[in-house]
Amino acid sequence: MYALSMVADTILQDGSPFDFSVVMHFVNILSSRTPAELNGCQFLVYKSFGDVIGSYSKWLSSSKSNIKPLLLFCASGISKSISSNSCSVALRKLCEDASSFIHEPPILDILFWISEGMGEGNLRIEDEEEIISAITHALCSILDKELRKTSLARLLCSSYSAVEKIIDIDRDELLRQNSSAYAQALNIAVRGLHRMGALFSHLAMSITSGLIDDDTISVLFGIFWPLLEKLTQSSHMENTSLSTAACRSLSSAIHSCGQHFQILLPKILECLSMNFLLYQRHDCFLRTGNG
């Protein structure tokens, strides 16, 4: 598998037909295994296969019957740190190359299953952002306007609950006094904000290419801003990682929304100014306000 991924450029440039049946045979076997059935050595195999899938995604995804097992394989490989990067990159390439199939209901179910399983915080933030960008790209290719809008809203809401939980802790002093539980909740919220930022960052590119309409952007910002407003009014913003992630996601949302955020501009600037006055060592509030 390693050798096959190393010679990918040569094989792809040659353009001659290549038999991937052996690759798909092993993909089907591995993707049918539960995480409990896999050990460390097998996840090294996942990493190698992930590299191959990423390198040959255009050819592999040309057959509709390959899409489901390939996505299930990526979903399994993402769950372990040793293979998460190669499988998240492979997922992104599949979502880019299989746009004609990716919006079908069984495929969307797998993508939502992947996105909704990231709340445990087991992955690197960079891999989570890669995965969300991949799924956002796939959802932006949905031709039906209403389905596209509801699918993107569902993807955004998969990260919403992670931030919502930290806001709830502000009303529960007992939870806040438990340092380990509070640190875990903060980490999950930070990751949720990064995923939201990744979604909006990708939307900004889709708007430029004309794939996303104004109504969809308005709906998504309408989901995002009330949550972020509550967060900025909480005492959790004293945490540097959380405040930085919040500002980053807000900046990404603003850049993707264009003129849609203008009506909320006074309120947004008020929140940023208030937090800068409270936590002056956090220059992210100032940078976001200037941006």
TrEMBL record:
GO (cellular component) term, any one: cytoplasm
Coiled coil stretches, renumbered: none
Gene3D superfamilies: Leucine-rich Repeat Variant
GO biological process: protein import into nucleus
Highest taxon listed in the record's lineage: Eukaryota
InterPro entries to which the protein is assigned, alphabetical: ARM-like (IPR011989), ARM-type_fold (IPR016024), Importin_beta-like_NTR (IPR051345)
UniProt name for this protein: Uncharacterized protein
Organismal lineage: Eukaryota, Viridiplantae, Streptophyta, Embryophyta, Tracheophyta
